[in-house]
Amino acid sequence: MANKNKKNAKKYRRIIIYGFMTSGKTTVGRRVAKKLSLSFYDTDIEFEKKYGPIKKFVEEKGIRRFRKLEKKILSSVLKKKNCVISAGGGIFPSGREGNLEFFIMVPWKRLFKRLKKGESKRPLLKDLDKNKDRVKKLYEKRLKKYLKAENVLKDKTIKELSDKITKIWKSR
Fold it and tell me: Cys-Cys link to 114, which of 22, 92, 134, 170 (CB 3.0-4.6 A)?
Protein backbone atom coordinates (compact mmCIF):
# COMPACT_ATOMS: atom_id res chain seq x y z
CA MET A 1 0.00 0.00 0.00
CA ALA A 2 1.39 3.39 -0.85
CA ASN A 3 1.94 6.39 1.37
CA LYS A 4 -1.55 7.77 2.17
CA ASN A 5 -0.31 11.15 3.36
CA LYS A 6 1.99 12.61 0.70
CA LYS A 7 1.33 16.26 1.50
CA ASN A 8 2.79 15.79 5.01
CA ALA A 9 5.71 13.66 3.81
CA LYS A 10 8.32 16.42 4.26
CA LYS A 11 7.38 16.73 7.92
CA TYR A 12 8.47 13.18 8.78
CA ARG A 13 11.18 13.02 11.40
CA ARG A 14 11.27 9.30 12.07
CA ILE A 15 10.26 5.92 10.65
CA ILE A 16 8.32 3.59 12.94
CA ILE A 17 7.85 -0.08 12.10
CA TYR A 18 5.00 -1.99 13.73
CA GLY A 19 3.97 -5.63 13.68
CA PHE A 20 3.26 -8.74 15.68
CA MET A 21 6.03 -10.66 17.42
CA THR A 22 8.49 -12.21 14.91
CA SER A 23 7.17 -10.16 11.97
CA GLY A 24 10.67 -8.91 11.16
CA LYS A 25 10.47 -5.36 12.56
CA THR A 26 13.94 -5.33 14.08
CA THR A 27 15.69 -6.94 11.11
CA VAL A 28 13.98 -4.64 8.61
CA GLY A 29 14.46 -1.58 10.84
CA ARG A 30 18.20 -2.16 11.21
CA ARG A 31 18.58 -2.59 7.47
CA VAL A 32 16.58 0.57 6.70
CA ALA A 33 18.55 2.60 9.25
CA LYS A 34 21.82 1.42 7.74
CA LYS A 35 20.70 2.17 4.16
CA LEU A 36 19.56 5.67 5.15
CA SER A 37 22.39 6.37 7.61
CA LEU A 38 19.86 6.94 10.41
CA SER A 39 20.00 5.90 14.06
CA PHE A 40 18.12 2.73 14.98
CA TYR A 41 16.10 2.09 18.14
CA ASP A 42 14.17 -1.01 19.13
CA THR A 43 11.78 -0.45 22.03
CA ASP A 44 12.31 -4.02 23.29
CA ILE A 45 16.09 -3.59 23.30
CA GLU A 46 15.79 -0.18 24.99
CA PHE A 47 13.50 -1.74 27.61
CA GLU A 48 15.97 -4.54 28.31
CA LYS A 49 18.87 -2.08 28.65
CA LYS A 50 16.96 -0.34 31.42
CA TYR A 51 14.97 -3.13 33.11
CA GLY A 52 16.52 -6.46 32.09
CA PRO A 53 15.06 -9.32 30.06
CA ILE A 54 11.40 -8.81 29.15
CA LYS A 55 10.39 -12.39 29.87
CA LYS A 56 11.81 -12.28 33.39
CA PHE A 57 10.35 -8.81 34.02
CA VAL A 58 6.85 -9.93 32.96
CA GLU A 59 7.08 -13.11 35.04
CA GLU A 60 8.10 -11.14 38.14
CA LYS A 61 6.18 -7.87 37.77
CA GLY A 62 3.37 -8.63 35.34
CA ILE A 63 2.31 -7.63 31.86
CA ARG A 64 0.53 -4.43 32.99
CA ARG A 65 3.68 -3.04 34.59
CA PHE A 66 5.62 -4.01 31.48
CA ARG A 67 3.14 -2.20 29.18
CA LYS A 68 3.27 0.92 31.35
CA LEU A 69 7.08 1.05 31.22
CA GLU A 70 7.09 0.12 27.54
CA LYS A 71 5.04 3.27 26.86
CA LYS A 72 7.62 5.33 28.77
CA ILE A 73 10.39 3.81 26.65
CA LEU A 74 8.43 4.65 23.49
CA SER A 75 7.88 8.25 24.65
CA SER A 76 11.60 8.60 25.24
CA VAL A 77 12.53 7.18 21.84
CA LEU A 78 9.93 9.36 20.08
CA LYS A 79 11.91 12.42 21.14
CA LYS A 80 14.62 11.35 18.70
CA LYS A 81 14.67 12.62 15.13
CA ASN A 82 16.04 11.18 11.92
CA CYS A 83 15.82 7.62 13.16
CA VAL A 84 14.16 4.28 12.61
CA ILE A 85 12.18 2.75 15.48
CA SER A 86 11.11 -0.87 15.78
CA ALA A 87 8.08 -0.81 18.07
CA GLY A 88 7.32 -3.70 20.42
CA GLY A 89 4.45 -5.97 19.36
CA GLY A 90 2.05 -4.35 21.85
CA ILE A 91 2.60 -0.84 20.46
CA PHE A 92 0.27 0.41 17.75
CA PRO A 93 0.29 3.16 15.10
CA SER A 94 -0.68 6.57 16.43
CA GLY A 95 -0.93 8.64 13.29
CA ARG A 96 1.13 11.24 15.15
CA GLU A 97 2.59 13.96 12.94
CA GLY A 98 6.26 13.41 12.27
CA ASN A 99 6.02 9.63 12.17
CA LEU A 100 6.25 7.72 8.91
CA GLU A 101 4.52 4.52 10.01
CA PHE A 102 4.73 1.03 8.53
CA PHE A 103 3.00 -2.18 9.51
CA ILE A 104 4.64 -5.43 8.40
CA MET A 105 1.74 -7.78 7.75
CA VAL A 106 2.64 -11.46 7.96
CA PRO A 107 0.04 -14.21 7.39
CA TRP A 108 -0.87 -16.16 10.55
CA LYS A 109 0.47 -19.55 9.35
CA ARG A 110 3.91 -18.14 8.55
CA LEU A 111 3.91 -16.09 11.74
CA PHE A 112 3.03 -19.15 13.85
CA LYS A 113 6.04 -21.04 12.48
CA ARG A 114 8.28 -18.13 13.46
CA LEU A 115 6.64 -17.85 16.87
CA LYS A 116 7.37 -21.53 17.55
CA LYS A 117 11.08 -20.88 16.98
CA GLY A 118 11.17 -17.98 19.46
CA GLU A 119 8.63 -19.07 22.06
CA SER A 120 11.14 -19.53 24.89
CA LYS A 121 12.07 -15.81 24.81
CA ARG A 122 8.58 -14.36 24.73
CA PRO A 123 6.35 -14.19 27.81
CA LEU A 124 3.08 -14.19 25.87
CA LEU A 125 4.02 -17.43 24.13
CA LYS A 126 4.30 -19.70 27.14
CA ASP A 127 3.08 -23.21 26.17
CA LEU A 128 2.36 -22.04 22.63
CA ASP A 129 1.02 -25.39 21.42
CA LYS A 130 -1.60 -25.40 24.20
CA ASN A 131 -2.34 -21.70 23.74
CA LYS A 132 -2.30 -21.42 19.94
CA ASP A 133 -5.94 -20.25 19.81
CA ARG A 134 -5.32 -17.60 22.49
CA VAL A 135 -2.28 -16.26 20.63
CA LYS A 136 -4.17 -16.29 17.32
CA LYS A 137 -6.98 -14.26 18.93
CA LEU A 138 -4.39 -11.80 20.22
CA TYR A 139 -2.95 -11.53 16.70
CA GLU A 140 -6.41 -10.92 15.22
CA LYS A 141 -7.23 -8.30 17.87
CA ARG A 142 -3.94 -6.49 17.29
CA LEU A 143 -4.25 -6.74 13.51
CA LYS A 144 -7.15 -4.26 13.53
CA LYS A 145 -4.95 -1.73 15.34
CA TYR A 146 -1.86 -2.35 13.22
CA LEU A 147 -3.86 -1.77 10.04
CA LYS A 148 -4.23 1.89 11.05
CA ALA A 149 -0.60 2.43 10.03
CA GLU A 150 -0.11 4.84 7.18
CA ASN A 151 1.68 2.15 5.15
CA VAL A 152 0.79 -1.53 5.24
CA LEU A 153 3.44 -3.80 3.78
CA LYS A 154 2.50 -7.37 2.92
CA ASP A 155 4.94 -10.07 3.97
CA LYS A 156 7.88 -9.96 1.57
CA THR A 157 11.58 -10.58 1.87
CA ILE A 158 13.64 -8.45 4.25
CA LYS A 159 15.25 -6.80 1.22
CA GLU A 160 11.90 -6.00 -0.44
CA LEU A 161 10.46 -4.57 2.77
CA SER A 162 13.50 -2.44 3.52
CA ASP A 163 13.74 -1.24 -0.09
CA LYS A 164 10.08 -0.16 -0.02
CA ILE A 165 10.46 1.75 3.27
CA THR A 166 13.68 3.38 2.03
CA LYS A 167 12.02 4.43 -1.23
CA ILE A 168 9.06 6.03 0.57
CA TRP A 169 11.37 7.88 3.03
CA LYS A 170 13.53 9.21 0.18
CA SER A 171 10.48 10.36 -1.81
CA ARG A 172 9.28 12.61 1.01
Answer: 22
